[in-house]
């Protein structure tokens, strides 16, 4: 088989890249090792920057997003028994939108299949080869077990943190990494949100986040120990901790049945460069941020917006300039978001044994809610910078 761009991974990065390329007449093949139902149900991100929403709309993906997405003009920061509102419209002139990653993935899978795209689920033994030549090759076994080989112009490694593309070029990459001594326990609960906007709570017993999935569904997170086990967290214990960490006189956290729960480790990780020969890495395959700044999905979208531009210039007109600049263009945004995610994480996650650290956090939080410059900086970073490339169509 022959294609222009071989894409490994049908997460948001791989699916969106294929969609953007198709809009500019570039053909691609997408291979994914999980099933369609698995990728469409995997609970992850929920918060989209304004530029992500604008991009999805510009490429015909705004329909369900406009019906199901909820625009948010700010967040609450809670600490020392007080809850403060930050107004993003006023501070940064921008907003964010709550729309689950599961829904974006469903929209993209439907759009790719409707366009007759070659999108293969449940493949195995994926390998990338020949990325140092001008004919890289993607090999895999299809869902029926038949060995396949796709000769490509370029391969896009959109296969997430645990994929095969980054390891294939590991000896060419520099990795910068930071671990954190805590993790997030996330639940999806069948209960109307108790808040109109997200609440980020700093509390002596640990950070907590109240997010939203819809009028009847809430998404809540708790800081837990990095090595904690979900078996230690029966639903009653989760609600008890959420009640304590969000408690505020005159306000009630409503409880409901817990539909899903899982613990996610936290790390910061950046691999560079994001291009080695004809293998381009994008999204979580190249970098990971802790979820506190809500940046992971948005960074994946920004990467593929830049990558689509670069590949269209390269494969349609032979202009290799944007592809040569791909890594540098993306890494500027990646490092800014890596800083912001680290900063939000460090400011909000608590350790009762560290009194000095706790007082620094409280001083920082007080500055964020009382200084316009400090709150505007948070608002600008949270709502996100405009994309460095215009829409292709
Ligand atoms: P994905 O989504 O991991 O997709 C990679 C795909 O590649 C497939 N794959 C392979 N396919 C073929 N062959 C192989 N050998 C393969 N190996 C892997 C995988 O099955 C998968 O389908 O990466 P992508 O597309 O780069 O997207 C990144 C985002 O998923 C991620 O950054 C966000 O979910 C992070 N994140 C958040 N980001 C935000 O912007 N806002 C948020 O509010 C937010 N909250 C979160 C988050 C991530 C979380 N977890 C669980 C990590 C909250 C949580 C709890
Ligand atoms: C989510 O809704 O899943 C979410 C929102 C904000 C974050 C992280 C996750 O910072």
Structure description:
With 393 residues, the protein is α+β, with helices and mostly antiparallel strands. The chain has one domain (5-177, 267-383): 3-Layer(bba) Sandwich (FAD/NAD(P)-binding domain). Helices cover 37% and strands 28% of the residues. It has helices spanning 12-23, 36-41, 50-58, 63-68, 88-92, 101-114, 165-168, 235-246, 296-317, 321-348, 355-370, 372-383; strands at 5-8, 28-31, 47-49, 70-72, 74-79, 82-87, 96-98, 118-120, 124-129, 137-141, 147-151, 154-157, 174-189, 199-201, 208-214, 217-225, 258-272, 275-276, 279-281, 287-288. The strands form 4 sheets. It has an 8-stranded mixed beta sheet. The protein is globular and about 65 Å long. The structure holds 8-demethyl-8-dimethylamino-flavin-adenine-dinucleotide and P-hydroxybenzoic acid. P-hydroxybenzoic acid is lined by residues 45-47, 198, 211, 219, 291-292, 294. 8-demethyl-8-dimethylamino-flavin-adenine-dinucleotide is lined by residues 8-14, 31-34, 39, 44-47, 101, 123, 126, 158-160, 163-164, 184, 186, 264, 283-284, 291, 294-298, 300.
